[in-house]
């Protein structure tokens, strides 16, 4: 998800390669391969309980960049409303010291994940990794910068410095509002939206901005610069999935 001076959100997929290109897929006897796949490829595993009955989310944040408590509550509530996980959804928070990597590139983000992530899919437990970074990306400019990125099937990063700079001030969305919007938008990609693993029930992929929704009022719209998403956030409301995106999730096993 990108932001520019007009608050345009855009998708950044840092499509990391498949597991066979990674070294160290088996570490300390744990096979990491199921968590080293392409973004969207585990959509059905998140949505349904056919294979995984519970979900464990590891949240790592650099000291000073902890997400708002309400943001994590919103994430959990959204998941409980959309996913079939009868054995529960658990969030584990861990603070780390700055790794000294800012500005980040996505390969550094992935290497950090390899170093600190402790939970991998096992049995009927699905796992997810979420990192709140102490910086932006190497490609950020003053007028356009990235807020978050879904880069694997169960992994995404939040560039929390950029979120801090873009929220909580006059004419800006609240911190919780922007954090929640970015988290749920990136999660939407892990859930296969749009046309990224959850097949479209009706055509609604934006041809000019692939993997995003054509509805400017939908959480999965590519930008928030217009009256849609930005207006909702500033008005204190959270952008929601529209009927087309919800139908895709439900058809792929979700609620
Ligand atoms: Zn996106
Ligand atoms: Zn939509």
Structure explained in plain terms:
The chain is an alpha/beta fold and 255 residues long. The chain has seven helices and nine strands, in the order βββαβαβαββββαααα. It has helices at 43-47, 69-82, 106-116, 160-165, 175-190, 229-234, 243-251, and strands at 2-4, 26-27, 30-31, 54-62, 89-96, 125-133, 144-146, 148-150, 155-159. One of its GO terms (molecular function) is metallopeptidase activity.
Present the secondary structure layout.
Elements: E1 2-4, E2 26-27, E3 30-31, H1 43-47, E4 54-62, H2 69-82, E5 89-96, H3 106-116, E6 125-133, E7 144-146, E8 148-150, E9 155-159, H4 160-165, H5 175-190, H6 229-234, H7 243-251
Helix pairs in contact: 2-5
The chain binds zinc ion (2 copies).
Q: How many DSSP-defined strands?
A: 9
CATH hierarchy: architecture: 3-Layer(aba) Sandwich
* Helix-strand pattern: EEEHEHEHEEEEHHHH
Distance between the termini: 25 Å
Strand portion: 15-25%
Number of domains: 1
Level-1 CATH class name: Alpha Beta
User: How many strands, which pairing sense, and closed or not: the largest β-sheet?
Assistant: 5 strands, mixed
Helix percent reads: 25-40%
What shape does the CA trace take?
globular
Instruction: Name the bound molecules.
Output: zinc ion
Q: Given the helix and strand composition, which structural class is it? A: alpha/beta
According to CATH, the homologous superfamily is: Collagenase (Catalytic Domain)
User: What is the third-level CATH name, the topology?
Assistant: Collagenase (Catalytic Domain)
State the helix count.
7
């Amino acid at each position: 998800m990108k932001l520019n001076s007009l608050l345009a959100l855009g998708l950044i997929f840092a499509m990391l390669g498949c597991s066979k290109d990674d070294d160290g897929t088996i570490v300390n006897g744990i096979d990491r391969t199921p968590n080293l796949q392409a973004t969207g490829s585990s959509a059905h595993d998140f949505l349904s309980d056919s294979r995984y009955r519970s979900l464990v989310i590891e949240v790592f944040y650099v000291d000073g960049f902890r997400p708002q408590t309400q943001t994590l509550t919103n994430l959990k509530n959204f998941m409980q409303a959309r996913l079939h996980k009868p054995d529960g959804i658990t969030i584990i928070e861990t603070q780390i010291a700055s790794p000294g990597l800012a500005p980040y590139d996505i390969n550094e983000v992935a290497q950090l994940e390899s170093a600190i992530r402790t939970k991998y899919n096992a049995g009927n437990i699905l796992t997810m990794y979420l990192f709140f970074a102490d910086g932006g990306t190497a490609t950020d400019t003053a007028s356009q910068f990235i807020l978050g990125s879904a880069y694997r099937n169960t992994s995404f990063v939040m560039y929390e410095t950029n979120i801090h700079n873009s929220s909580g001030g006059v004419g800006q969305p609240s911190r919780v509002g922007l954090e929640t919007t970015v988290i749920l938008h990136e999660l939407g990609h892990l859930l296969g939206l749009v046309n990224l693993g959850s097949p479209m029930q009706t055509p609604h992929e934006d041809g000019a901005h692939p993997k995003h929704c054509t509805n400017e009022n939908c959480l999965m719209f590519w930008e928030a610069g217009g009256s849609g998403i930005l207006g909702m956030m500033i008005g204190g409301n959270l952008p929601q999935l529209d009927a087309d995106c919800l139908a895709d999730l439900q058809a792929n096993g979700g609620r």
